[in-house]
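Lecture 7 notes. Example A: sequence first, then its C-alpha cells.
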Amino acid sequence: MKIRRILCIAALLALPVAARAQTSPSDSVAAKAPTPSSDPRAVEVADKIMKALGGQKHWDELVGLRWSFGFEQSDTVRNIRRHSWNKQSGWHRVEGKNRAGQSFCYIENLNDGHGMAWVNGNAIEGDSLQKLLKVAKRLWTNDTYWMLMPYKLRDPGVMLGYDGEVKDSTGDYEKLALSFDHVGQTPGDRYWVFVNKKNHRIEKWDYLLEKQPPPAEHATWEAWQEHGGLWFPTAHRTPDGGNVFTRDVETVAEFKPTEFTAP
C-alpha cells in the first residue's frame, strides 16, 4: 500500500492520508438533495446505506462526536490523534504528539477558520498559528473521512455512479463510484465503494487520490460499532497488513465547558 502523507507538515505526523472529506464540515442541515448528475440507482443505494447507519434524522440530530484515529502495521502503532467535534457549531479539537514527541492541541472552527493552538502547553500565535490551523484542517479532512464517509454520500457536490453488482469470495455487493464537482481540497480524488446487498453496509473500497497514478489502493471497512443509535467503522485493513483504525468512539450530547477554548 502506498501511504500518502500530509505534504506541508511532514514533520508532524506519519499517518496515511488515503481519504479526503470532500464537502462542508458542517452537517447540521437536514437531508440534502442529490447532485443532479448522480445516477438514480446509486442514490437509492446511498439512501439504504443511511438507513442502515441509523437514519438521516438520527444523524441530523447528533450534537457531536469524540474518537481516536491512528494507524498500525505489524503490531506497531503510529501516532494516535484524539478528536472532538461539535457537529452543530463546527468547533473541532485534535490533540496528540508530533514526530518530535511534543504534545499538541489544535482547536478550530471548521466554518470560519478561527482557532487556537498549543504545543507543549505553549500558546502559538501569528503566522505559526495560521500554519497549525491548516494542519488541524488537514487532520480533520483525513481522519473524519475514514470514519464518516458513508454519512456523506448525499452531500452537495458528491456525484454518485452505479457500477453494477460484484460477487466475490467475501459476498455480494453493489458498487458505487464517487467523484466530486468542485468541492473539497482535492476534487480529483476518486472512490469506489462496495455495499453489501444484505445489510446495506459499506465493507470495502478502492481509492485513487488526485494526481496519483493507477492502480487504485484498497482497504476494508469493518468492525462496525453502534454508538448512540448510529453505526461507525473502526478498522480498515489494507492488503499489506496495515490497519487504519478508529477507537474510543463517543457520541456527545453536551461538551465540556472548556473543550473548545483551552488545552
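Example B, a different protein, same format:
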Amino acid sequence: MPGKLEVKMMDFRMKVKVNPAASQNTLAWRGDFLKANLTAPPEEGAANRQLIDLIAGSFDLDSNNVEIIRGQNSRDKTVMLYDLDRETLVRKMNDLKG
C-alpha cells in the first residue's frame, strides 16, 4: 500500500541494577543502565517477577516480551525487551531519565 509507514519492531537488551525490598517501585534510566527499586523481597523469584512486570508496564509491553537473560540471582541483571518499536523505546527511555 503506497504511503503506508511501516513500523519496524526490534529487540533491545539493557543492563538493570536492582534494589529489592525498597519502600516503593521505581525505574530510572542512568545513562547506560536502568535502576530498579522493587518492594518485593529477593526470595523465591518475587523480585524478578516484579521487575518484569514493572518494566513491561513502563514500556507498554506484555510481560511475555520481557525476559531476564542474565543475573537471575544477582542484583545486576541483563534484560531483553522483545518486539518494541524504536520510537516507543526512545520516548520511554527519555521519560525514565532523572
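Note on Example B: The chain is about 25% helix and 35% strand. The chain has one domain: 9-96.
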